[in-house]
Automatic annotation (TrEMBL):
<keyword id="KW-0472">Membrane</keyword>
<keyword id="KW-1133">Transmembrane helix</keyword>
<protein>
    <submittedName>
        <fullName>Type II secretion system protein</fullName>
    </submittedName>
</protein>
<feature type="transmembrane region" description="Helical">
    <location>
        <begin position="279"/>
        <end position="298"/>
    </location>
</feature>
<feature type="domain" description="Type II secretion system protein GspF">
    <location>
        <begin position="168"/>
        <end position="293"/>
    </location>
</feature>
<dbReference type="InterPro" id="IPR018076">
    <property type="entry name" value="T2SS_GspF_dom"/>
</dbReference>
<keyword id="KW-1003">Cell membrane</keyword>
<dbReference type="Pfam" id="PF00482">
    <property type="entry name" value="T2SSF"/>
</dbReference>
<feature type="transmembrane region" description="Helical">
    <location>
        <begin position="102"/>
        <end position="124"/>
    </location>
</feature>
<dbReference type="GO" id="GO:0005886">
    <property type="term" value="C:plasma membrane"/>
</dbReference>
<feature type="transmembrane region" description="Helical">
    <location>
        <begin position="130"/>
        <end position="148"/>
    </location>
</feature>
<feature type="transmembrane region" description="Helical">
    <location>
        <begin position="6"/>
        <end position="23"/>
    </location>
</feature>
<keyword id="KW-0812">Transmembrane</keyword>
């Protein structure tokens, strides 16, 4: 009964996917304009970053599949702001991410006949229910695996970016103390480092100068794109006190000190967690050693 229900569900899902593929929903004018703007923005970002599209048959199929999935999501109005922010901070494309999320579960489902044949060789019968459920479970795990990996990498990148922002605030404060204006101090401070975070800040400030935007608007936009609250707070503070150089200098110094203190507290917390984990591992090791010592005596007592 369960196999018949599962087979009917798979057939129904296949028919639904076939109908949706043959007769796709027509996106509205706003969705089409948004898709055109997103495609132009991706082309501009690739041209600025010098990104090379993957070559070869598999790379071309993967890129084409990614573009189709991105167009599908944009036509449905799915923004995926958190995913886009994580991809932006890790400098990865949305097309490759969506293609990976689709291909990994599909590859897991393709192993159903292989797992069924392996179970038959082991003598567990010719039923396909257990292999199907095993492959479906792995497909679900593979579907969420890119999200977990992306979130972990983005968290590490944001931590490094916050550290760079703290150093950037100190550099801006020193430039303001030297008599420079706010735009000149921001640009001069961004030219000090060559890391990825400082390069993103420098590019944002340079683009703001070309497009006629204020530097704090550019920093706020970068904070929104990368989901970094420190940049948004910095943009708000600069917009409020942009005319008072002494007040900006004191505010930036206080923000830099606060960021360093918070970073130090986080590092101390992580060190404490690792110390606790090492203590638990030592306790397990001692318990295993005691069991190893007591096992022969216990067996001798039970045997007698």
């Amino acid at each position: 009964m369960t196999g018949a229900i599962l087979a009917g569900a798979l057939v129904g899902l296949g028919l639904y996917a076939l109908v949706r593929a043959l007769f796709p929903a027509r996106p509205g004018l706003a969705a089409r304009m948004a898709a055109l703007d997103a495609a132009r923005r991706r082309d501009l970002e690739d041209a600025q970053a010098g990104t090379v599209r993957p070559e070869g048959r598999f790379g071309g199929m993967r890129a084409r599949l990614g573009r189709e999935l991105v167009a599908f999501c944009e036509s449905r109005g799915w923004k995926m702001r958190s995913v886009r922010a994580d991809l932006a901070i890790t400098e990865r494309s949305l097309e490759a991410f969506l293609a990976t999320k689709f291909l990994l579960p599909a590859a897991a489902l393709l192993f159903i006949p292989i797992v069924a044949g392996y179970f038959a060789l082991l003598g567990f019968g010719s039923s396909v229910q257990v292999p199907v459920w095993i492959c479906v479970l792995f497909a679900a795990l593979f579907f969420f695996f890119p999200d977990m990996q992306l979130r972990q990498e983005a968290q590490a990148r944001r931590q490094d970016f916050r550290h760079v922002v703290g150093a950037f605030l100190d550099l801006v404060s020193m430039n303001l103390a030297g008599g420079r204006g706010v735009p000149e101090a921001l640009m001069s401070a961004s030219n000090v480092g060559d890391g990825p975070a400082m390069r993103r800040i420098r590019d944002a400030l340079g683009n703001a100068r070309l497009t006629g935007r204020t530097p704090w608007q550019a920093l706020g936009g970068l904070g929104d794109d990368l989901d970094i609250a420190e940049l948004r707070d910095l943009a708000g503070a600069l917009a409020l006190v942009s005319d008072d150089g002494a007040q900006i200098r004191r505010s930036l110094s206080a923000r830099a000190a606060s960021m360093r203190s918070r970073e130090l507290s986080e590092l101390e917390g992580k060190a404490g967690e690792r110390s606790q984990s090492m203590l638990v591992a030592q306790l397990f090791l001692c318990a295993g050693f005691l069991v190893f010592l007591a096992y022969p005596a216990l067996m001798r007592v039970l045997a007698s």
